[in-house]
Specification:
Length: 258
Amino acid sequence: MRKSFIALLMGLIVSLLLSGTAVASGSARPVPTGKTALTKNPIYATGEFDFTECKELNRQPDDVDSYKIYLDHLMDCLNLSWGEEFAQAKLPFGKPKVRFITGAARTGCGRYPAGYAAGMYCQVDKTMWILIDKHQLKDPSEFELFAVIAHEYGHYVQDRAGILPAADRATRKASKATAYAWTRRIELQAACFSGAFIGSVWHSLGRDQFDWDDLLERTLGDPLHGKAKNIRYWLKRGWNGNAPAVCNTFSAPASKVA
Ligand SMILES: [Zn+2]
């Protein structure tokens, strides 16, 4: 998920302030804006992920530190994989900030909605917030955290590539129904980005197909994230495509983003 509406507006202001510095020197191009950012983003023109190795580190039950090390390592993989895609797109890139928490926290987007969200990307503090919950702490082989961090990273990618700022602008003054429709395109794209990354490193994880099938099976839909069958569709589409090129939800028919 990501923090919406008021936070989005705040995020928009912050991103406008920062956009002057987002144009990097050298071969980088300016971050796209408007409709171009959504439907013709240079990130869609990049190839498959180059780095296909991402070993999962061992975790110990109820040992938060071992979980943080595990997640830090996944962040290294994500930074490498996405950094290369941004280089191909000739878009400026930097690593996101990330905070691993086990309960309540104060974020730039307000109080972290513990008990509701497994993770959150906040545009205001440009930080990925990842919740390690007590069920996950009991099961060091669980796969959910992997999926959550890959999804929230997807929102960071959207922010850096100009997609979130453009969507924020499009939803300003929009009706609730229209704003929800835009939010679903954002969320389903993050799902597709996560599927693409997970698929690209899957063979190196030493996991059974069960973990992936289980993730798809447990997927629940809601009005902001889309119907379960559409979330599954975009997760699988990313997984099969191994690249953000297959994740253009902003050009997808309404039925695929319902
Ligand atoms: Zn999300």
